[in-house]
Every structure is written in C-alpha cells, then in structure tokens.
Write a structure and sequence with these properties.
Chain lengths: 94, 358
C-alpha cells in the first residue's frame, strides 16, 4: 500500500533551461518523483517528494532546487526550543 | 558522540581487531581486515539492544577499509556507514562475494539519517578514500554508494576531487548481489524506499524509549500508585494514559496506511478518540457522580496525547517532508496544547466537585 503525505507542500523546483537530461536525479530519488521525458527531467509526482534533497545535491548543472530537510516533528520542536533550524538532538533516535 | 570510539585518522591506520574480523588481507597499504558474512548471536542481540536504545551510541565499527572474501585490485568497492547494524547487514548481504568495504565515519548513524545530517557526505567520502589509500588498493576508479547516501553526497564532486566515479546502488543492501550480477543496474523496485508493516514496527521501540522517557516515568508512577494504593487520587487511573501512549507510539505507526487521513497527528487523534470512548464506557464514567467532568477531560487529554506521539513518528517515516511536517504542526500543536490544557482544567473541576460533594 502506497503511503502518501500532505498534498501541495513540496518546495521542489526544476529549471528546464539548465537541465541536460542526464538522469542522475531519477536515479537518486527514492520516490520516483522525476522522470526523463523529451531529454529533460520532469516532476511527475510532486506530492511524493519528501524533500530529501538528493536530486538537487547530485545535479551537476544546478537545475533543481528544494528546501531540503528531514520531515521530523521532534527535530522541528528541538529547533524551535533552541531558537534555530530543525535539528536532531542526542536522543539516539537517528 | 560515543566515547572510546577509536577513529584512525592517520593515513593507512591499522583497524584494531574485533569479533567480526576473521582475518587480514595483504594490500599495498597494509593489512585490510576481512570480515565474516555470517551474523552471530552477539551481533543480533546488539541490534535488538540498539532498537531499544540500549548502548545505542556505542554500537559502531571503526571507520576505514574492510573486505569480504578474497578481493583483488579489480574488485568492487562498497561504501557504507559505521553504525554496526548497518555494517552487519552489508557484510551479511555480501556472502559469497569478493569486495572491499569502505566504512565512513558517520558517528554510528545509519546511511540515510547520516546523509541527512551530512556526516555521510561528500567531504567524508573524499577524506576516507584518501585516508584508506583506496587508489593504491584498487586499480579501477569506481565506488558503489547506497542510493540513500545521495542525500549527503554529490557524486560529481567526489569524482572531481578524487577521480572516483560514484555509482548509486540499490536502496536495500539485500539487493546488492542482484545489482552486481546485472552489471550495476538497479531495477525500479531497488530504487524505491518501502515502509512496510515490519519496517514500521521495528521503529516503534525508539518512539517509546528515546525521547519520551518522562511520559513513561509518569505513567509508571501512576500505575504504581494505583496498584499499591499508596496515594490514591480519585478519578485518576493510569491505564487510560498508558493506553493512549501505546496507541500514539505503537498502534498508529503499525496501522498507518489503514487509518483514514494523511496527517500523522490526525491519525493518532482518531485512534486516541476511539480509545477515550472505550475508557469512558468501560469505566462507566458517566454514571458516576460528576462523571461528566472526568469524561470530558478523558476526551480532551487522551486523543491529544496519542496525536502528539503519532506526530513524532514523522521522523521515523520514510515519506514525510520538512514542509509537510511544518504545515501539519502549525495546526496540530496549538490544538494539542489547547485540548490538553482544557482537559486538565475539566479534570480539576471534576475533582473539586467530587471533593466538595462529599
């Protein structure tokens, strides 16, 4: 069964002018968000994106942008308590 | 950070002996430890302990170059993390294969989480290739990384700085043998992250033991008070709360795909509400004097508690995004806090009414 999270939240953006269609983004994406169509990467399933940032980091042409982070409530709470960005503590969870 | 973890940071440092090292293989940069591909009882016990948070941060292997079988200079190089549970799964999956294993220093964290933190990252890959003298051990210039390492590693940067080409292997190391046999080609299934019922279940102990120890301590103290009658508070039972905790931290994660809705806190709230109804009916709260107040507080507190704990499972899940969780929390947290506060007030009202009525 396919698990789906909230709709219309991902910050994933694709710059078609910079994309060369090399396909590395389709290899690293764990949720089949991107496919190569007409020699360009296309976002075909935006709502499956978990903003892990693998595609943007591995794009040699900086064609992809995403506000990468971990979708973890505890990290967000901890970040808020420390008055900063979401961060993992030493809780030993991950 | 684990104390006593020795990290050889000098060039070609010798990795100290360990129970899983079954021999040494000669190489131009010294003896490379050969690891066994069969897990023994202590490996499996160690994994279970780590799941329950026992000795978790010391469950590591020393970073550096290892091998399985009888690799030579043309054998593949697999890169992994120094969390021992991860390392064990890698060597188990490499049974019958000759390969080098380059273990990065991820501070005892698994590949995906470490990649998210950046410790399984471009800089560490580059550094570890140099420290291990990898270019002297193998004649080819290819390294295989787990696909989930891509969150922290820019493959093109590694190539630019070391000459090693990064190939992303399958998500699960159990597929590594099939991946290598098919000429380093991954199938669609190998590239996708799963989050099946077993994957969810094994992550629930972390929810219970990791961050919410205070909740458990309170619950156990309440239970103790109830059983011994040492200090009895009218209308206060421990089991509804223990139930709500288990529903939020275990039942909701396990039943995740079958609970309607998408937000984790909503799913937890829904089951928590069902539980509250069971508690109120089972305890015949409404037929007790001033029972309306304790019933109200049950409805306000238990679902909120389950919702909060279910929300924490976003961190363990494999499909939630930062933007999504932030959006969910903007709604969920004020509701959870307001509901709990109101629940405490109604409980107090009920308690005082009961006291005053006697």
């Amino acid at each position: 069964m396919q698990l789906r999270y909230l709709k219309n939240v991902s910050t994933l953006q694709m710059n078609d002018d910079k994309c060369t269609g090399c396909g590395i983004c389709t290899i690293v994406c764990p949720h089949e968000v991107l496919v190569i169509e007409d020699k360009k990467a296309n976002i075909i399933d935006r709502d499956a994106c978990m903003e892990c940032g693998a595609c943007a980091l591995n794009c040699p042409f900086e064609a992809i942008s995403v506000k990468a982070g971990v979708g973890c409530a505890a990290a967000i709470i901890l970040g808020k308590l420390k008055n900063g960005e979401p961060c993992c503590g030493d809780g030993g969870c991950c | 950070m684990a104390e006593g973890l020795r990290i050889p940071d000098n060039l070609f440092a010798r990795i100290p002996d360990a129970p899983w090292i079954i021999g040494r293989r000669k190489s131009p940069v010294g003896d490379i430890p050969r690891v066994g591909t069969e897990l023994v009882w202590s490996d499996i016990a160690g994994s279970w302990k780590a799941r329950w948070g026992i000795n978790r941060m010391n469950f590591t292997v020393v970073p550096g170059l290892y091998c399985v079988g009888e690799p030579d200079d043309s054998s593949p190089v697999l890169v992994t993390a120094n969390y021992k549970m991860t390392f064990d799964r890698v060597r188990k999956a490499l049974s019958g294969i000759n390969a080098w294993i380059l273990v990065l220093d991820t501070r005892g964290i698994n590949v995906w989480c470490a990649a998210g933190k950046g410790t399984f990252g471009t800089a560490e890959v580059i550094r570890r290739i140099a420290l291990a003298g990898l270019s002297q051990v193998v004649s080819h210039r290819t390294i295989i990384l787990p696909q989930l390492g891509a969150t922290g590693v820019a493959a093109h940067e590694v190539r630019k700085q070391t000459g090693f080409k990064v190939i992303y292997g399958p998500v699960r190391v159990e597929d590594i043998s099939a991946f290598m046999k098919s000429g380093l080609k991954a199938t669609r299934e190998m590239r996708q992250v799963q989050f099946g019922i077993y994957d969810r279940l094994v992550l629930t102990p972390v929810q219970l033991t990791g961050m919410f120890k205070p909740l458990w301590i309170i619950a156990i103290v309440l239970l103790f008070a109830q059983i011994t009658g040492l200090f009895k508070i009218t209308g206060l039972n421990a089991y509804p709360y223990i139930g709500a905790i288990l529903i939020g931290a275990v039942v909701t994660p396990v039943l995740l795909p079958w609970i309607p809705g998408r937000a984790f806190s909503w799913k937890g709230w829904l089951l928590g509400m069902l539980w509250a109804v069971v508690v109120i009916n089972g305890g015949r709260y409404l037929s007790q004097p001033h029972g309306i107040w304790i019933s109200l507080s049950t409805i306000l507190i238990l679902p909120a508690l389950s919702a909060f704990l279910a929300l924490q499972f976003t961190g363990a899940s494999t499909y939630t995004s930062l933007s999504g969780v932030e959006k969910e929390m903007k709604v969920a947290m004020p509701v959870i806090i307001a509901s709990t506060s109101l629940g405490l007030v109604t409980w107090l009202v009920g308690y005082l009414a009961l006291k005053g009525g006697i």
